[in-house]
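Our preliminary data section would be incomplete without showing what the modeling component actually yields. Below, a chain of 758 amino acids is followed by its predicted structure, encoded as tokens that our downstream tools consume directly.
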Amino acid sequence: MFTSFSGNTRRPRQVNLGGRKTHAFGSAGPGAGSQAALDRAQQDRAQRQRERESLKAAKTIQRVWRGHRSRKELADKLRSDWDKLEGTQNQTPFASEEEAYGQLLRLVQFASTHNHEDADRIWKFTSRQMQTIRKSGPLVGGAWPSAYLKLEGVVLAIIERQTALFALESIKKSLGILRFIAEQIPVETSRNAQRYYTVLARVASQVDFMDESGENKALVDHLSETVIIPLKNMSSHVLNAYEVFGYSFLPLPVLAVDGDSPFAAKFRDSLADAINYKLLANALATSLTDGGLKERRELAETGDRLRFLGLFIYLHRFAHNFHSPEAYSVHKDFVAVISLLLNSLPTNLIEGSMRDDIDQEQPINDFLRDQILSLVNQEGIANLLSASSQSSETTDDEKVDEARQLANYALALLRFFPQRGDEIRMWLYIGPSTSRSKKLPAIKYFWEAAKRTSVFAKISRNSRVVIDLLRPKAGDTHESSGFEWQAPQQQLDQEAVTAHEWRVILVFLELYTFILKVTDDEEFFAGSRDISGEARDNSLPLPDVKELATFLKNFGFTMYYNAADINEPEQRDSSSTSLSFFAPKASEPVPQKPAELSVGGVAGLSLDYVKGLVTGLVRSIYERDSRRKFLPADQWLMSRFHMDEKFIDMIVTEEESRHKIQEEDAEDVDDVEEEEFDDTPHIIGTGQAQRHRSVESRQRQLRKQSRRRFLQAVAPRLEIVQNMPFFIPFTTRVQIFRKFVHLDMVSCPPLLTFYNMN
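Predicted structure:
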């Protein structure tokens, strides 16, 4: 009987749309039997699959084992045959070239890095081969290079294993073998230099240069001779060898030691005496220009780039006996490498030891400091433009590219040595003391290059493009927030070109600012005429000054008037208050990497610095124009302003906002003064008061920065009035001044002020 809660005992009808017949009695449910059969079928199928995989794995294991066993039997047979032929010989030359080649083929087929006896066999063959070469001459033709290259790979593997085991005595013996092989096939060694110099760099990093014993000295001599061999052969692959050598050896800490280790200094000098510094600079400049520093894993750390820079400078100075710095500062490859490395390093290296962004275990020592400081010298900087191309055969693109390189170098020096910026500008202004051919002065050289840039042309035509040119790119925000985002290569190339153009313009502005300080009105208005009778002439023609004034007017106006739009990503990142379920607790410190300053893709420069540079230059040109008119009457007026009553009222409103912000700043200053004179006793040893004061100090700084950004956003017209008022007509400025006076009288009546004073 079928029962249900409704009381109906009739079984409900079962409709099977699948066409399968079910059991008429006691069925637990529709399809239960078929599901069990399906499960069993799936289990059987999985079991058969496992059996097939097990059989396949067993066949693979058997095949691998048979191959290993057959190779081992063949290696043992070849080893036995090799020993039979070598057993009767005792350090004697080979009887014929065929016998030597046959022994070499057998050796490379059975030699193993795990067999210590094979290392002895390789040494024995090398000794006999040396004697054979002395007797009958070198054996390098035909199939010899291929066989030598295989033997070189085996020796490198043996040295790599010995380096891991710190077997320095065995390494010295293996280096002798490697040196002999590299001498036989220098071209093939240069072609496969990556592993060659990687292994030798590991050996050099484990050598104890403080040990001046005879055995250690012999090891260093073997290492030095082995490193130099691929660099001496002038073949088509020598640049590859120099490139790998530079990235492998120049970042090594053992080569950047001070004078405390004369043994290490001797090893460094032996390398410097043997290499060709021009080939090294050419190889590194080509590699860094094509791939950039980000693609080089060897230079990922700041300390590695610092040692790379110091050793690179030292090799060039050593080649010129530490004299004549102008001989290598005019070398374009040297300038390119130095520019890229300096722009990638923080600017506080010379003033002190490395900070948080550099490895604390490797502070900058006297050796590295001396090499970097050698870049700042009058001869090298004054002769920077001596190698520039001024011939008519040079195309405009080549001239622009050359100017970019020189501008990168000059701007890198100004950024890296801010305290000696005036000296660098003066040396560029003076130029070379003696020159065989008359060159363009630095100011005119960079002016011609700046005029050809697309950035200069865009800003001169439209002031609004400054916002997009200066605004930080979206890729920077993604990188700082922890997301991995890669822009398209075409966009990266365009941003790199724009950054180079900005460097040319900024170097020109730096130099022209200095020139306006040291020249009087007569020299300024002289144009291209010779005033002092000297070969140099650093004054621009007045039509060029007019073109420059238009560029500076658009540039400076937009930096003040649209400061909020330019700093929009920075404000969003700094003022973000979005909630996160995975945010750390309030008591836990949140380590934040400081954002790198960048303007137009030029690292190390802040927007305030560029704003001050442009403002000072605009004021200087305006003062010259005020004393002796040479620009049109409406040159300094901005067409983007609508000079009406509403404009004046908005400036007055911005002035009120500025007063409020100044009052808040004054309150913070009062709080700081109260804390400085606070004589309340604190608990000694806990540091609670110091932590509390540091937190409050950081909060005050954040509030001050927030108010400054807020003032830039709400008072752009007031910024123009305060910094460059001549952008506004004189009559409008008079009306604004009257409004300010009226506002002061309303907020503080004169009579009330007089009575309060009495």
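The chain has a mean pLDDT of 77. The first strand starts at residue 598 and ends at 599. Preliminary results of this kind motivate Aim 1 of the renewal.
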